[in-house]
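FAQ: What does the model actually see?

It sees only this:
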Amino acid sequence: MSRCTAPVKGHRTAAARAACPACSSRYGYQSYTSYSPPRSFSYPASGHAGSIRSHVGGSGGSARPRWSKAGSSVVYTDAQVRALTPVRSSVESRPPAPDRRDVFLCHAWDDRAGAAKELHDLLEARGVSVWFSEKDVALGTSLLREIDKGLAKSRVGIVLVTPALLRRVQQEGIADKELSVLLSRDLLVPIVHETTYEALRDISPLLGSRSGLDTAEEPMTDVAAKLAELVAP
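And it is asked to produce this:
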């Protein structure tokens, strides 16, 4: 059976279409216009900006990352796979250890009993060990010192981007210090919640250049499932 040459040579010209042994006879020279890769095609990881809605092919499409185990029901978009692949590579270079947490959860103080607690509980229910200031900073200890230790001992940093966090970053508080450390490595996954990437880029262009996950597009339970797979052994 003849093979289509579109993926290699393209069919942008009539001559190219005529030279294809499969399409010249099957479709005729005028009806075959261009080649489009399947929506589940996996693209190489690369840096990119914006929200997960900006990926090639629109908001649809699905892909299976290499770290997703057989039988997993978790569904990713192509853009999510591209965004998370560098983080997974960093995770694999930092294997689990008795004194190491899977995830450092960076959040605004105002979210400690709301969205941050919800995400923490969902992750721990999936067996993910989480550094969370509400349980890991004892009374009477230095908050900044404990954050430093938590950052050093965590394999991945999650930033819960909410309106409250954007306000804290503008004020250059503790959240800003945590972000500075996390942004220096490929260990950061922004989770946008009740705000937008556009608002994030206005406050922190560097953090806004990192793609991640967005609860406007999927529930927090699905976000937690993807993060759990991301840090799984």
